[in-house]
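Notes, p. 3: input format for complexes.
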Amino acid sequence: MSAILRFTLSTAVATALALFAFGCGEQSEAPAPPKPAKEAPAQPAAKAPAPVEKADTAPAESEAVEADPAAGKADYQIFCASCHGPTGDGDGPVAQALDPKPARHSDGNFMNPLEDDYLFKVIKFGGASVGKSPMMAPVGGSLSDQQIRNVIAFIRSLANPPYQP
Ligand code: HEC
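Output follows (165 residues plus heme C):
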């Protein structure tokens, strides 16, 4: 009895060893042949000399376009003359109904001391923005900043005595 058992065991062990060995052999088979390192053409990208051609052509201070009194006159007739009058005498058709009366842009003594920035504000944001009559309506919604500057240039041309910047 024990002899048969011993034989069986040894056979089993032998078989196991054989299988193991076989398995191992197979596993270590065919080591992938080392691929020849594909030589990437490591060409050092020719260092371009970065053309920093920052031309010094920046327009000297894009300080807006110069105010154009002629263009301002056209807008003045459309947006201002109804109250201020066509020549800034404060005698437009709507003026009668107003109190206080529209400023007389032809009155240099009144207008000349007023700064451009102040006029710009009154015109763009309306009389109320500087504590004046709200009947002096804001035109910022209708005229661009440049157009307003044009109108100011025109107003300046109406002043008597003449406006001197
Ligand atoms: C609906 C009438 C009306 C229109 C249109 C009008 N204004 Fe006036 N404006 C007035 C009145 C009224 C005053 C006087 C406000 C006050 O004295 O309180 C005035 C005052 C002014 C003043 C003087 C502000 C000051 O400090 O005394 C300026 C400058 C002026 N207007 C410019 C303009 C210009 C430029 C336009 C056109 C873009 C214009 N106004 C359109 C009624 C008007």
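Residues 8 and 134 are 117 Å apart (CA to CA).
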